[in-house]
Amino acid sequence: MSTLSDYTDCIKRLLIDIGYRDEPFPAYDSSYWGPFHSWMLEELGPTSTWSLKQLNELEHAAGGVIERSYPCASVELKLLYAKLTAIAILIDDSLEDEAVHADILQFSHRLYLGHSQENGMLALYHENMKELSDVYGDDAVLRGLAIVPWINYIDACLLEKVLFTTQLDYISAIKPHPHYLRSKSGIAEAYAAGIFKATTEQSIPLRRYIRILPDLTFFIEVINDILSFYKEELAGETYNLIQLRTRSLSSSGAHGSGVDEEWTAHDTLLLLCDEIRAATYRIDRMLRLEECEAKIRGETGNFDIDEVDLEIARQWRGWRDGYISWHFECRRYKLSPLKGMIVGGRSI
């Protein structure tokens, strides 16, 4: 990050260009937060060594991202996604515990053999995956998109640990393909599937949105990396997507904005913003977002927009704006003080 002003200007331009809307923070929903809070304390908490303060932060992050990103979803769907998100975060932060790591190593094997998980945290993870699978009913393709990434996430965590702890040079190993680990660890297809399944009863034909899935998964992964970059720079982290891609591009001889025309992290940030911008435009165009929103406003226009088009548009818009808003609201990203500079209004 060259300067704080460079970062805020870059994000501000991106959010303006993609038409981000800063929606009001939702009112407290006791039907969602009540059961989630109880589950955190009574079921997930006892499977970990985390303090009450750590669990509260986990509840704030996992519960918040799902509440914000799925405003059209039922409480049932939101709770399942929130629980899986909380466990995924806990798994990633438990890899240094050798006993837990040993259980994580066997997670997929036990899953494939049909054996129960001996670790309480992993048993909860598996149980919630099964419950989410039930929600998707007979839609085998969408169910696969919603469930398999949670399994792949385990493998991504293990792969990352191997790269960090063996004699392999992590940078050399991952440098040619900086998006590889991100695509496995981002759980993006699962979150994308949730956008188009707001309730157990909702059944949107896959053909109505399948073309946008590559761009959508890219958006989910990379907008998070862009909005995470500020707090990672403050913490001095060097193994994030932006830094890894910077090293990859730099080693390839790309010319950037550095003193000696070297490629910099800010150049990568600008590049990723351009790629996100282009992906968002393609998604909006294929989902006919502008036309759908014109029809919702009652404006005259195309008459071939149907209720399924409108459902898709509402749920994509709700997810996109909510996911971005959550990053400004979640304490871990440290963006609240910058909100006024980026989107206007007061910090929160």
Mean pLDDT over all positions: 91
Helix amount: 55-70%
Strand content: under 5%
Distance N to C terminus: 23 Å
Under the CATH scheme, which architecture would be assigned? Orthogonal Bundle
Number of DSSP strand runs: 0
State the CATH class.
Mainly Alpha
- What characterizes the major β-sheet? none
CATH fourth-tier homologous superfamily:
Farnesyl Diphosphate Synthase
The geometry reads as: globular
Question: Stretches where pLDDT falls below 50 for ≥5 residues?
Answer: none
Q: Rg, please?
A: 21 Å
The helix tally amounts to 17
- The tally of domains stands at 1
Structural class: mainly alpha
Q: What is the CATH topology?
A: Farnesyl Diphosphate Synthase
Order of helices and strands: HHHHHHHHHHHHHHHHH
GO molecular function: carbon-oxygen lyase activity, acting on phosphates
InterPro entries: Isoprenoid_synthase_dom_sf (IPR008949), Trichodiene_synth (IPR024652)
Keywords: Lyase
Pfam families: TRI5
